[in-house]
Amino acid sequence: MRPDLRVSTIIPVFGRHDVLRRAVASVLRQSHPVHEVIVVDDASHPPISDDDVGSSDARVRVIRSLRNGGPASARNMGIEASSGELIAFLDSDDVWYANKLEVQIHEYQKRASRSELCAIVCSWDVVHPGRPSTYSRRPLESGALVDFASGCWYSPGSTLLINRSAFDRVGLFADGLRRLEDFEWFLRFAAAGGKLYSAPVVGAAIRHGRRAFYSDVRLAAAEILRRFRAETSFDPPSPVYRRLRAWLHVELAAAARNEKSWGRLFWHLACSFCLVPRTSVEIKTWWTIGPPRGSELPIDAARTAPSDHGPR
User: Fewer Cβ close by (within 10 Å): the C or N end of the chain?
Assistant: First the structure.
């Protein structure tokens, strides 16, 4: 393994002053040292301070947006400010385990020789508010566009490691999206021939149950469909397009549930199941389930922090 591979870690944050330092500490504890940690403050009020970051390490820097642009905009700011060959993302309320990057980089070096456009994710412990983690998920590997149109099963906000050059080829995240921005980016990644690989490590503890507003998801779904139709040759009868619409209906149903809009919830689920008949909400079995690794730098499972995705 090349010890000189430089990894830039990008942590977008809006609010969450009380949990950010755990995320930063988990990056600095990596067995493969990171090149830099870029905390992107998406116009938090009050602004993210040195005390919130919790480290005087010279590799850590905070850049601040003057307006709240959402996670796509914040990640783009981090990418443009980065100088490493590889980029890794971490949501501000999640944490990494100490050998995450080491195992992922080893996997990347095996895979990059076979595929110029490859992304490495990993397994993660699922943390529910108020309960200890009881299981981990290992995501499916895939290079098929029909899979990427059928869900976002790999938690890229806290598990993704990817070559910076991928963003030169695929483009940055869609700046106007406040939800599903990673899902939309991976549609373009797969359409460009990208492949997703899963490193054999439980590398993160990820908080379950972030809240999404129906209006944000509705706008994102419409924009994703518009972009997909404009940028690909897939028309409405195709399996890829049908699965894309089916999954967006699931996302809309989940957002409707968050707002206790039961009529919308059942309507979107009915539309989804009509488009892709199946026996579960998920369109495919995306994970293998394993035992939890257990916390090294525990996230506070008893609290639910505000979302990174914009003012609430």
Answer: C
Domain co-membership, 144 together with 21: yes
Dihedral sign (CA 288, 292, 297, 302): positive
- Residue that the structure tokens 């595929």 belong to: 115
Per-residue model confidence (pLDDT) at position 131: 84
Regarding whether 233 and 204 lie in a shared domain, the answer is: no
Instruction: Supply the pLDDT for residue 138.
Output: 98
- Same domain for 251 and 165, yes or no, is no
Q: Do residues 119 and 160 make contact, with C-beta atoms less than 8 angstroms apart?
A: yes
CA-only gyration radius of the chain, Å: 19
Name the domain count of the chain.
Answer: 2
270-304 pLDDT, tens digit per residue, is 999 999 999 999 999 999 999 999 877 666 543 44
Mean pLDDT (the chain, rounded): 92
Instruction: Name every residue whose Cβ is closer than 8 Å to that of residue 140 and which is 6 or more positions away in sequence.
Output: 147, 153, 154, 198, 284, 285, 286, 287
- Same-domain status, 228 and 198: no
Name the residue range of residue 34's domain.
7-208
DSSP sequence for the chain: --TT--EEEEEEESS-TTTHHHHHHHHHT-SS--SEEEEEE-S-SSPP-HHHHT---TTEEEEE-SS---HHHHHHHHHHH--SSEEEE--TT-EE-TTHHHHHHHHHHHHTTT-SSEEEEEEEEEE-TTS----EEEEPPB--HHHHTT---S-HHHH-EEETHHHHHH----TT-SSSHHHHHHHHHHHTT-EEEEEEEEEEEEE------HHHHHHHHHHHHHHHHHHS---TTSHHHHHHHHHHHHHHHHHHHHTT-HHHHHHHHHHHHHHS--SSSSSS--EEEE-----SS---TT--PPPTTS--
Same domain, 246 and 105: no
